[in-house]
Amino acid sequence: MLKPYNKKPLSYAKQVHHLQSKGLSIHNVAWAEGILAKYGYYRLSAYWYPYRIRSGNNVLDRFKPGTSFEKIVQLYEFDTELRLQIFGAIEIIETFYERN
């Protein structure tokens, strides 16, 4: 049987504060709140995972010094655009071979 999930969702302001408390540098809080509303905390979390501090085989709940939210968002947006470009190219190749 599944356990009930009792955690209440955090507001975007609290999400920003939570990330800052883990050592993530956020220069523009209002912008960061908008980004979290647009993309989502958990979607971005995959992109900040490599910037978390490691101790042996453990990944700690802290960010490496100098890690910025802006850099993580740039990485996410680059990956998104690259993925769109690749899938667009695949579609062209697929339809080319279907016609020939």
What is the number of helical segments per DSSP (H or I, 4+ residues)? 4
Q: Strand arrangement, largest sheet?
A: 1-2
The residue-averaged pLDDT reads: 93
Distance between the termini: 54 Å
- Assembly category: single chain
Helix content: 55-70%
Shape assignment:
extended
Low-confidence stretches: none
Order of helices and strands: HHHEEH
Helix/strand class: mainly alpha
Supply Rg: 18 Å
The percentage of residues in β strands lies in 5-15%
Describe the structure.
The chain has one domain. The radius of gyration is 18 Å and the shape is extended. The protein is mainly alpha-helical and 100 residues long. Strand 1 (52-55) and strand 2 (58-63) form a beta hairpin. Helix 1 (12-21) crosses helix 2 (29-39). The chain has a two-stranded antiparallel ribbon. The model has no long low-confidence stretch (mean pLDDT 93). 60% of the residues lie in helices and 10% in strands. The chain has helices spanning 12-21, 29-39, 41-48, 69-99; strands spanning 52-55, 58-63. The longest helix is centred in the C-terminal third of the chain and has 31 residues, at 69-99. The protein contains four helices and two strands.
Topology:
Blueprint: H1 12-21, H2 29-39, H3 41-48, E1 52-55, E2 58-63, H4 69-99
Antiparallel strand pairs: 1-2
Helix pairs in contact: 1-2
